Amino acid sequence: MKTHMIVVAALVGLAASPLTAGSGSVHGKYVEARTAEVFTGGCIMGSEAETVGKQAVLAWKVDGGSFNGVPLDGLSVVAAVAGDKNLGIQEIGGGIAKVKSAVFVDERANAAQRIALVAMATELSKGIVGNIVNVTATPIQYADQEQAVHVAAGQVALDVNKHMAHDPTCGAMQWFHPLASVTDATMGVADQHSFSGSGLGTKWSDPNKRSAFFGSFSY
Questions:
Q1: What burial class does residue 181 get, using C-beta atoms within 10 Å of its C-beta: 0-12 exposed, 13-18 middle, 19+ buried?
Q2: Could you state, in order of their start, the residue ranges of all structural domains in the chain?
Q3: Are residues 88 and 125 in contact, defined by beta-carbon separation less than 8 angstroms?
Q4: CA torsion angle 212 55 104 153 (round to 10)
């Protein structure tokens, strides 16, 4: 189905307005992957920390509730994010990355719901979904299954295996936490993780990495 571009100025302006300070009660499922392993050895992290992890995909599926007074039951929103440095580098002593984001909202959402979805993603990502360059209404697939999570939206493809081997090679450990607020965050393997759009000035495909988190959210 053909995707539809939304008037970005209206959506981004309202998402950044004081409306985002209000919430409501909304809950659902969350998954993310970045272009850096979140569980790896210190020898690898020491050599790669400055050069990897600049891109990520974040996705939410609302099971029920509202945000800013707008009901969002069953709707999804996905963001592709690109930064000038590792998005989690501040966790290991670096500065905060400057980011650009492309956001995909559920095509089933009406105008008010699309604005609320963008505002929710901005709020729950603690600002990682920021400097939004475009917002696109598109069909979104978000399937949270027993063994895996599958997300497809526009130029985004993400498949996360929920089983991750905790190989202690090279003193492997968890280096980063989720980019967004999430309950019971669990690490996973991104079997597929790609963004092929043009709006961020970069594209990526970073499969088969221990680079994912999944869980639930409530706000």
A1: middle
A2: 4-218
A3: no
A4: -60
The distance from CA 200 to its chain's CA centroid, rounded to whole angstroms, is: 15
The radius of gyration of the chain's CA atoms, rounded to the nearest angstrom, is 16
Q: Which residue has the tokens 């670096």?
A: 94
Tokens of 104: 């995909």
Q: Assess contact for 34 and 89: CB atoms under 8 A.
A: no
Check: CB of residue 78 under 8 Å from CB of residue 120. no
pTM > 0.90: yes or no: no
Most confident option among 12-26, 38-52, 152-166: 152-166
- Comparing CA positions, the residue from 215, 200, 209, 218 lying closest to residue 82 is 200
**Closest to 4 in 3D by CA, of 107, 79, 102:** 107
Angle at 63 between CA 164 and CA 156, to 5 degrees: 55
What is the model's pLDDT at position 9?
42
Which of 147, 135, 104 is CA-nearest to residue 7? 135
Residue 65 contacts residue 74 (beta carbons within 8 Å): no
Q: What is the mean pLDDT of residues 24-33?
A: 94
Angle at 40 between CA 155 and CA 169, to 5 degrees: 135
Binned at pLDDT 50, 70 and 90, residue 120 comes out as very high
